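R.M. (postdoc): so does anyone remember the format we settled on? I'll just put the structure tokens first.
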């Protein structure tokens, strides 16, 4: 419904968006580098095990969100992590294959272009803990199955330290070999949950851009060790990496009300500190929010937001803050697209055996 150059896009919502916002979202390859199809994991498991349970209305809701490519990674941190990670990747492959007319597994640079042109939704398969790499050869094994992003640590493992660990001794010698192999086969190194020292060590060890798929700025949330320091953000940018800003309340503001305006403050900070070419989106939430299922006793969602239309709200805010159309397109996806293309470019030595 059009009203004086404003669009009402969502049923049962009074929200209206400018024509520019609508054009920017619909014309962009919007990449959410920690975007979940659903945080209702029993539902997701049912979709993957019995793909027919995923209905056309479920797909349409994802399409209506404006997001073109989701990176729906989760982190396994206990039990048989390798087996659980293998099952996760396998189930994503089953789901995508069963819905090939609607979804595309994003394996390389060409897919980043193809998914939008084909009107599909792209899935970047990743993991939020690299403990499933029991040996260097496991990097090749999981890459062959379709994994294209791996967060080095969720909490301390053989590779390095996590942000929640009381001590972070940095990237280990084994971790450096894992980073090297990921560079060679074309798998993105994600440092979102890494401790401060491991974060800096991983950036230094990598010959390719390193990603922060989902984190925010510690300068704005001083009590969060999960948020990244200015030094880390600058170093990520200096190597060509991108930082995806999240929409989870306790990474957006330390206390008090937290709204989309506070999320925009984090994008402003990254842009001013390191350049708009290094800011992106990694919402770390689905289209319903976290409060109902994930943290029923801890408010995780922003105030006054409907996560189903979060990309439109974010874009409208960027327009309001006078970002140019080009820079909004960069933030919505082109920055991550550029970095992923560089990361996924396979080097000739990738096929050599690494002992």
């Amino acid at each position: 419904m059009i009203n004086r150059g404003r669009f009402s896009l969502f049923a049962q919502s009074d929200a209206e968006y400018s024509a520019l916002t609508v054009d920017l979202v619909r014309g962009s390859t919007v990449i959410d580098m920690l975007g979940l199809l659903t945080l209702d994991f029993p539902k997701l498991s049912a979709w993957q095990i019995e793909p027919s349970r995923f209905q056309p209305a479920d797909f349409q809701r994802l399409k209506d969100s404006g997001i073109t490519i989701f990176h729906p990674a989760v982190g396994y941190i206990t039990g048989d992590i390798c087996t659980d990670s293998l099952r996760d990747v396998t189930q994503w492959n089953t789901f995508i294959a069963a819905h090939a007319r609607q979804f595309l597994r994003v394996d390389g640079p060409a897919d980043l272009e193809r998914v939008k042109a084909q009107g599909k939704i792209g899935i970047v398969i990743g993991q939020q803990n690299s403990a499933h790499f029991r040996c260097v050869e496991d990097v090749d094994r999981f890459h062959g199955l379709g994994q294209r992003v791996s967060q080095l640590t969720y909490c301390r493992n053989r590779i390095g330290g996590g942000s929640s660990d009381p001590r972070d001794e940095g990237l280990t010698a084994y971790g450096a070999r894992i980073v090297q192999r990921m560079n060679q086969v074309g798998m993105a190194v994600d440092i979102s949950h890494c401790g401060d020292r491991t974060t800096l060590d991983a950036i230094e060890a990598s010959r390719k851009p390193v990603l922060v798929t989902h984190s925010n700025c510690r300068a704005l949330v001083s009590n969060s060790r999960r948020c990244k320091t200015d030094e880390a953000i600058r170093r990520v940018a200096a190597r060509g990496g991108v930082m995806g800003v999240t929409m989870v309340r306790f990474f957006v503001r330390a206390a008090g009300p937290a709204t989309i305006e506070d999320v925009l403050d984090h994008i402003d900070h990254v842009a001013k500190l390191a350049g708009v070419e290094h800011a992106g989106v990694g919402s770390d939430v689905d289209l319903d929010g976290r409060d109902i299922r994930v943290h029923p006793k801890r408010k995780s969602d922003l105030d006054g937001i409907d996560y189903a239309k979060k990309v439109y709200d974010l874009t409208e805010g960027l327009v309001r803050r006078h970002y140019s159309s080009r820079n909004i397109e960069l933030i919505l996806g082109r920055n991550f697209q550029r970095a992923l293309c560089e990361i996924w470019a396979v080097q000739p030595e990738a096929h050599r055996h690494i002992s």
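R.M.: ...and that's the designed sequence above, right after the tokens. Also worth knowing: The chain has one domain: 30-351. The first strand starts at residue 2 and ends at 3.
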